[in-house]
Amino acid sequence: MRARFRNLMDKYVFTDSLNFDDRVLNLICIVGTVALFASAVGHIIENSSKIMMLVKIVMLFGAVALLLVANKFKLHNQGRLIVIIAYCDLLFPLIFVTNGGSMSGFAAYFVLTINLIILLARGVVLYAALITHIAIIVGCYLLDLLVPQVIAPLSTFQRYLDNVISIVIAGLFIGFIIKGLSGLFIREQVKATAASRAKSEFLAQMSHEMRTPMNAIIGISSILASSEDMKQHMDGMKKIEAASTHLLSVINDILDMSKIESGGLEMLSETFNFRGMLDGITAIMNIAIEQKKHRLSVYVDPAIPEYLTGDRQRLAQVITNLLSNAVKFTDDGGDIGLSARVEASDSESCALAISVTDTGIGITEEQRGRLFVSFEQADNSVSRKYGGAGLGLAISKRIVEMMGGSIRVNSEPGAGAEFIVTVTLRAGTPPEKSPSADREGDFSGKTILIAEDVDINREIIIALLGSTNITMDCACDGRQAVDMFAAKRGGYDLIFMDIQMPGVDGYEAARAIRALDVPNARSVPIIAMTANVFKEDIDNAREAGMNDHLGKPIVLGDVMRVLSRYLRGRS
Q1: In this structure, are residues 407 and 420 in contact, taking their beta carbons and an 8 Å threshold?
Q2: What is the model's pLDDT at position 149?
Q3: Torsion angle, CA of 273/279/284/289, rounded to 10 degrees?
Q4: What pLDDT, on a 0 to 100 scale, did the predictor assign at position 358?
């Protein structure tokens, strides 16, 4: 009997195969069953009312049936909680009235179910179960106080039985709590260890991914410094550019994940040419594709509208990442496919299915479970062979979900992979052509102020904008930028403002310029041009009165977009 009881408890209460809610509700049922069983046995031994014994036996079988049915059909959830609690509440007045009322030891243990209700229930279920439970308990004690004659007296035998069963029930609660706490501690410890290991592996991978291109940049620069061979210089510059691009992509992945984790990644909305976006992506990827002698096939459904509205840059980022992975994990001479098809459309929107296929190494079922998880590699040995930071797919998944879409993968080991992105974009109208479209890169007549304390950074921005015919003045710190703006009486059309400068930083300088009593002080566009690219940095720039934000390293296309946005149409 003792062994069976222990097996019952191990199966329904102390097991790790059931979740916490299941075990708590099972414990409620078992406590009620034990108490009811003891009370019925006491009445049988003392030859009490046969009707009362029959009622208790019926409810006893009901409690056991409820326990078995709830476990067989997995009824432990918020919708069934109130039913189970209500059944135990029916047991309480029955045992209370027939077992000595407030003198009964069982009453205290039913009061403990309040704690279980609070642990499990939420919202309306919590209040309904809790109010019902408390009302029944208070009603029973008032009955004992006001009408004591309806309470059956507690005999010596029942008191003895009460004490024994009280110890048993107390042991169940204590054992359950100890088991629950120890299990929670172990699970948290395992989770913390796994998280620590994953982040350590991630940092090691990041170190490798960043040091490899840096080693190439530094090494090739040293070689070129001592070489006068122009052909070698040209080849070296291409290699430095490729290594720099790879390093920047790694840094961008880290920053994107940081933005996502902090809720700082925002989706933009712009009208763009969908086919043109795909052409741009494939043009970029063609270099790597040709190096590995892959065959690339592209299909675009004719039903896709020419212009769509959404976050062009982020969608291109996802597609580029999928194509990069396809190229990376496919051996030389393989096949890469990119297709975009319409799944559904109406006059206002278009649901697209964009798929990237390859004939590469494929993915196992176990690897698919970790494929989209941050700070984890699907297979560390594969990542060491093929490279990669292991953040691209996690970032892609979050971006697609923020667009209201989804991403999934079909793959078998050795049989390639297919990644499918589904996303809905709004239909767009062709943008109106600007009268100055033929002179889009010409900003003759415009004057900008560049506030930057690092010489090489000033040289880079001046060189990048050299062909735009824009007039550029430079300030070496924030104080000088404010003085130059004031001296020119607001005669600048735009200001590029670094943040980390000695003395007066970019934030202070922007506030000081906005406070000047000179023309254009409150309307001149001030653009943060800084390596501080986290959400809080962007928010701080806007709070300081800046209009926009450009992250370093500087990309010419981004600079030109900012100039076009803020200088076109300004007199």
Answers
A1: yes
A2: 85
A3: 150
A4: 92
Per-residue pLDDT of 40-73, as tens digits, reads 676 676 666 667 667 767 766 776 676 667 666 6
Residue 410 burial by Cβ neighbours in a 10 Å radius (0-12, 13-18, 19+): middle
Name residue 339's beta-bridge partners.
299, 355
Given a contact cutoff of 8 angstroms between Cβ atoms, the answer to whether 494 and 563 are in contact is yes
* 392 closest CA partner among 240, 205, 241: 205
Position 342 confidence tier, pLDDT thresholds 50, 70, 90: very high
Q: Which residues contact 402 (CB under 8 A, 6 or more apart)?
A: 265, 267
Beta-carbon neighbour count of residue 24 at 10 Å? Answer: 21
Tell me if 29 sits within 8 A of 84, measured CB to CB: yes
How far apart (Å, rounded) are the C-alpha atoms in residues 504 and 99? 81
Parallel/antiparallel/unpaired status of strands 526-530 and 494-497: parallel
For 417, the enclosing helix (H) or strand (E) is strand 417-427
The CA distance from 162 to 101, in Å, is 12
pTM to 2 decimals? 0.50
Q: Could you tell me the fold of the domain covering 270-427?
A: Heat Shock Protein 90 (3.30.565)
Spatial CB neighbours of 30, under 8 Å, sequence gap ≥ 6: 8, 9, 12, 13, 67, 172
Helix axes 20-45, 78-98, angle to 10 degrees: 20
The H-assigned helical ranges of 46-77 are: 50-72
Spatial CA neighbour of 56 closest among 25, 27, 35: 35
- What pLDDT, in 10s, does the model give residues 552-570? 777 788 888 888 888 875 5
pLDDT for the residue numbered 191:
72
Q: What are phi and psi of 361, to 5 degrees?
A: -75, -15
Neighbours of 136 (CB within 10 A): 18
Banded pLDDT at 261 (limits 50, 70, 90)? low
Count of beta carbons in the 10 Å neighbourhood of residue 420: 16
Helix, strand or coil for residue 287? Answer: helix
d(CA 555, CA 546): 20
Dihedral class, residue 96 (left if φ above 0, else alpha if ψ from -120 to 50, else beta): alpha
**Tell me: the pLDDT tens digits for 425-443?**
988 887 665 454 445 578 8
The residues with which 271 forms a beta bridge, in sequence order, are 309
Question: CB-side exposure of 349: number of CA atoms within 13 Å?
Answer: 9
301 φ/ψ angles, rounded to the nearest 5 degrees: -55, 125
Q: Which residues have C-beta within 8 Å of that of residue 281, sequence separation ≥ 6?
A: 316, 319, 320, 323
Give the span between the Cα atoms of 556 and 540, in whole angstroms. 24
Fold for 439-567, please state it.
Rossmann fold (3.40.50)
